[in-house]
Amino acid sequence: MTDSPVTISPTTTTDAAIAQPSDEHSLTAGPSGPILLQDHYLIQKMAQFNRERVPERVVHAKGGGAFGFFETTEDVSAFTKADLFQPGKRVDMLARFSTVAGERGSPDTWRDPRGFALKFYTEVGNYDMVGNNTPVFFVRDPSKFQDFIHSQKRRADSHTRDHNMQWDFWSLSPESAHQVTWLMGDRGIPSSWREMNGYSSHTYLWENAGGQKHWVKYHFKTDQGVGYLTQEDGDRLAGEDGDYHQRDLYDHIKSADAPSWTLHVQLMPFTDAADYRFNPFDLTKVWPHGDYPLVKVGRMVLDRNAENYFAQIEQAAFEPANMIPGIGPSPDKMLLGRLFSYPDTHRYRIGPNYLQLPVNRPHAAVNSYNRDGAMRYDNPGDPVYAPNSFGGPVADMRSELPSWQVEAGEIARTAYVAHADDDDFIQPGTMYREVLDGAQQARLVSNITGHLSKGVEGDVLTRALDYWRKVDGDLGARVAKGLNGG
Ligand code: NDP
User: Fold this and answer.
1) Within 13 Å, how many C-alpha atoms sit on residue 328's CB side?
2) Which helix (H) or strand (E) holds 475?
């Protein structure tokens, strides 16, 4: 539907553009039927309807997004040669925000981290960042990710979500303490997508034109100010308007109130990583601002709504493996796992040629030898192989992404190389004691006790209380007291 009435309507056709005589009546032998198989448009409508859904994302299923631009306002060329981060550069982009555990129709205001996925259509290919509105994560090894998500989704028997299952996993996984502290705090339910920060969370590697390298973390700080909802408001809105965040973003952009974020980075000199006090690639930890202060880079603005949600947002495919020269991965094991899992899920969910859809298609030229497959419409011609002597594309070794040297050891299943302060409870404890004020601490305690009081029992509850005592003795005591009726 459009906002203004349409006066002259086009004729309905099949998808093969053949005019149709009726939008309402199927073709029958006599008024009482039977329905005839030759009513091709009816058959097409029924068959197409049965195939309307692509599989929903296994995580981050409920979300929305918008288009806009990123512009580099500062000079960070001393740290990266990446095309989009050169002074004055401006590129088109797409952002998608989402909850993690909820299904496609679930309420926007459930307590959950939010996805903060970005696609930059740069002159040298797509650059994607699959961030969150939190700087850390629940686990640090991709082999635990599937189990973590299963514990947050639904039971096998009742098909309900289960707090006992959630706390069972968390309390058996001490590395989750930092993220769970963050989740139970105010930022666990943002007031809108506009009013939340985005973080790369992962560490990446930047390289400048001279080959000098820095480890880097990205912080997209909202220019609207950080806002949150209380548990009570989140619960109320989940009933009143399940699409509260989607509607907020759409309406603000529609009324020309374009939200923006300022990008800052933390930069760690390449050689600092080896003996930093904790492992800097551990996704459950932040780099304290005091050690690595924020450096401003530019700003992103979302000023254009999608015209077609399914085509442009549901079928949008973000993948952290899309990195451009000047930017590379780090030894963060979660990142390395995600480099595989994202494109893999897109091939399953949308199809092997998902990169040809307009929303995913790079604005830069594609010169690959990949070809054929379901639904491919822009197929490369001859020569179909490399090397060839017929003028086909030739790879350029100068486009290699930055990397690090690996000290090969015995093949094994181990934690990261240990650093002195690799402790799961130091940073959440610091957050509780030094970042949150009295009112924020009180809401954290209330949110934790509220969550624990919904079906968490026995050994799981005992372990959960121990978990909070390890984060902070006072916090643990307040949670225990709250559970016993205050
Ligand atoms: P700082 O005092 O420099 O930073 C504290 C940061 O905490 C703020 O900059 C803000 O991040 C964030 N913050 C403020 N209120 C909340 C809240 N209610 N919930 C979640 N985060 C909040 O100290 P450090 O850098 O030394 O970090 C101390 C602790 O702060 C860490 O252990 C971590 O738990 C938390 N933190 C640190 C971040 C970092 O990258 N260093 C980022 C976010 C949290 P922002 O400015 O991004 O809004």
Assistant:
1) 20
2) helix 473-483
DSSP string for 172-221: T-GGGHHHHHHHHSGGGSBS-STTS-EE--S-EEEE-TTS-EEEEEEEEE
Domain that holds residue 321: 63-361
The protein residue whose alpha carbon is closest to atom 7 in ligand 1 is 435
Cα 401 from chain centroid (whole Å):
23
Q: Rounded to an integer, what distance in angstroms lies between the CA atom of residue 392 and that of residue 317?
A: 28
> What's the structural domain count of the chain?
1
pLDDT at 1 over 60: no
- DSSP for 42-104, please give it: HHHHHHHHHT-PPPPPSSS-SEEEEEEEEEE-S--TTT---GGGSTT-EEEEEEEEEESSS-T
- Active-site residue list: 60, 132
185 touches ligand 1 (CB under 6 Å): yes
Q: Is the CB of 430 under 6 A from ligand 1?
A: yes
Contact 284, 141 (CB under 8 A): no
Question: Does residue 304 lie in a domain region?
Answer: yes
The amino acid sitting at 359 is V
* 213 belongs to a structural domain: yes
- Per DSSP, the three-state class of 17 is coil
- 399 located within any domain: no
Mutate to test the pocket of ligand 1, among 181, 223, 286, 430 (most ligand atoms within 8 A of CB): 286
Residue 35, token pair as written in the block: 């329905």
Q: Can you give the CATH number for the domain in which 212 is found?
A: 2.40.180.10
458, burial (CB in 10 Å: exposed 0-12, middle 13-18, buried 19+): exposed
> For residue 73, is it within any domain?
yes
pLDDT digits (tens, 9 = 90+) for 351-401: 999 999 999 999 999 999 999 999 999 999 999 999 999 999 999 999 999
| 354 and 319 Cβ atoms separated by less than 8 Å | no
Q: Can you tell me the distance from the alpha carbon of 101 to that of 59, in angstroms, rounded to the nearest whole number?
A: 6
Q: Residue 389's pLDDT is what?
A: 97
Q: What is the pLDDT of residue 3?
A: 59
